[in-house]
Amino acid sequence: MPRTKVKERNRIFLFLRIGVVAAGVTWAIVWLSKEQRWGNLTAVFHRMNLGVFAAALAIFVVAQMMIAFRWWLLLRTQSIFINYWAAVRLHFLGLFYNNFLPGAIGGDLLRAWYVTKHTDRKFEAVLSVFVDRIVGLLGSVAIAVFFYSLFLRGRGLQVDFGGSSLKLFAEHKGVILWVIVVLAAAFYGLMLHRQSRALLKKSWSYIKIRGQKVVGKFKNAMIIYCSKPLAILTVFGLTLFLQLLTITGFWFLGVNLGISAAVRYYYVFFPLGWAFGALPVSIGGAVVMEGLLFYLFTHFAGVGDEPALALALCQRIVWMIASLPGAAIHLLGAHLPAGHPAGLPKDFSIDYNKPVN
Q: Where are the beta strands (DSSP E) in the chain?
């Protein structure tokens, strides 16, 4: 695909994500302007103890430093060696990009970019970033499922995804069938045209060759991960501990805001919010996570509208404040090596402890 088309597609996708955030913020402002909700929300924030908020913020920052350690471990399993504090700096830089900059390049891609610029094991470096993200998502899902099954099952939180999908298909089966017919006709038309057939053949050959290489590298990388089960178990156990610790911090903050919901609701609702917030439909999960937390706490935990919204906003504020070190790292060039205009910190080393050339 030509570079100009890729840029145009990314720009459209970015505008759509910004539009989702703008629509959500506009709706929230309109909603708060009714029935004295602004005053009620302000009263909830006035009840908050800044010491409790600072404690929740400190817990989150410590958890982020340990998440950087998790990524550092994953890199080492692939024999990509970097200094721990370099991993911390890159992690907070990525956190800042995720929470403040509405660009097409997220924090995960930023980390992958900097590592691949300084290692011959480029695919393994990129894979470590996404394995790190997948481990985090799996941890969130595991926590939500465990606490839901143990404490909240049968308490009005039943969701029949299978039945909903079948109902949706039954209601729109005509449209779905027409879409299939149109796609099949378009593909058949392309196959009738000689130039189109040649282009498809060339594209398929390129995809096949590149795919074989990627599959081979992926297979080798996964073999390495599977050959080190202790490291993977350590990474996953660390993920569960850090997420539970972070959620507990937000529970203390919620109690301080006057929310009486039991901590088990937090252990289900917050991981769900993080999982859905990872979907690339907004900027840093903004609006998606806040809206989902607000809905879950008000509809299933019996929390008032204003306290639920205050809790969701507090999470976002904690995330943004914790991301600020990433801005300082960027402005001071702490992520760049001495004498290298576009590289990494000078304490980076790669591939079996060989220094960067």
A: 349-350, 354-355
